[in-house]
Amino acid sequence: MALAQPEPGGLSPASGRRPQPQRTPPLRGALATTACMETLQVGYLHAVAAAAGCSLSQPFPDNGIDWHLSHSSAGHTVDDEVTIKVQLKCTYQIPPHPPGPAFSFTLDNDHLVKLARTPVSVHKILVVMLVPRTQDEWLRASHDRLDLRHCCYWTNLAGQAVTGRHRTTVRIPTSRIFDDRALCEIMTRVGAGGRP
């Protein structure tokens, strides 16, 4: 007669799964949540740029634009290297997987005017990151991956009109997930003389 050996860590009799160990919340630093959100979105941008083969530079002072991304390719027709300007925003007030074709995001009018200017010699995009409300939910690491939650979306606001007195609500398409493929496609369009 053979006896089954218990699984390492034991199994929960009701579910047949291993019980999850109780995790003690880590002692996080006292940096303001908004400052941490800014750092998180910069990490997302760097990961996307690295996977797309782009270089980054940060203007100083930023004057309303956070980053410049450049993409070199012999396939570009306007120049061998093209650049776009990126403005980053981050919010926990919009849930993940926003329903519908777009979600609303509000910008100060002065900021919108800068992003909406047209024509331009260097195109600009707005990248909005949606994050969980608590920092404990932002990252999950395992041996084969680092999951960063939730997602960044991008849009080109060139020509967008100011409609509010001090702030204007714009629509961010949910079909425009900002990842390495999206960034390569943006750079390909700009490299052919088009818009992002």
UniProtKB/TrEMBL annotation:
Pfam families to which the protein is assigned, alphabetical? DUF4365
Q: Where is the composition biased (Low complexity)?
A: 17-27
InterPro entries noted in UniProt: DUF4365
Q: Where is this region: Disordered?
A: 1-27
Residues annotated as domain DUF4365: 42-189
Q: What name does this protein carry?
A: DUF4365 domain-containing protein
Q: Which organism is it from?
A: Streptomyces pristinaespiralis (strain ATCC 25486 / DSM 40338 / CBS 914.69 / JCM 4507 / KCC S-0507 / NBRC 13074 / NRRL 2958 / 5647)
Question: Which classification does the entry list for the species?
Answer: Bacteria, Bacillati, Actinomycetota, Actinomycetes, Kitasatosporales
